[in-house]
Amino acid sequence: MALRNALLATLLEGEASGYDLAKGFDASVANFWTATPQQLYRELDRMEADGLIEARVVQQERRPNKRLFSLTEAGRRVLRDFTARSPKPGAMREELLVQVQAVDAGDGAAVRESIAARLERSRAKLARYERLRARLLDGREEDDYLASAERIGPYLTLMRGRAFEEENIRWAERALAILDRRAGA
Q1: Where are the domains of the chain?
Q2: What 3-state DSSP class applies to 101?
Q3: pTM of the predicted model as reported, rounded to 2 decimal places
Q4: According to CATH, what is the number of the domain 3-84?
Q5: Which of 136, 148, 133, 152 is closest to 12 using CA atoms?
């Protein structure tokens, strides 16, 4: 999948500036796709040149002018074509797991620290996802939201992100307990 498709999907929410996309990217699709702000801006320029999005300039006082991006019909067609094909299965490529695989031959304390750091990052991400979930539901029950929301894609991907971080937490807690038990701690 290309960053292009993730940006097109994000623009389904409506017109947004590059800054808003970079800021909102973390809250909307970061549970399954990551990119730096520089990558986002470069891709937005390419997408505009390819006619997939259009930009309008908003004049601002005391601040630089900003460009607001929106999908074109060509961008919507690309997104429809993308959703119509079967995606390739994802592959896990995780440096931490290579360290864990080699823990018996390496520095067990350092690997333990890496797992503990992952645990804390996963807890922080899960807390951020829970805040996003509460904002999306806005006091509604999940079933009511899913039956009546205009767009459910963002919520479905949020469900996957939450499940992923919950599993990361379960695994890290168990791995730490095993390492501690083997170290006699």
Answers
A1: 3-84, 95-183
A2: helix
A3: 0.74
A4: 1.10.10.10
A5: 152
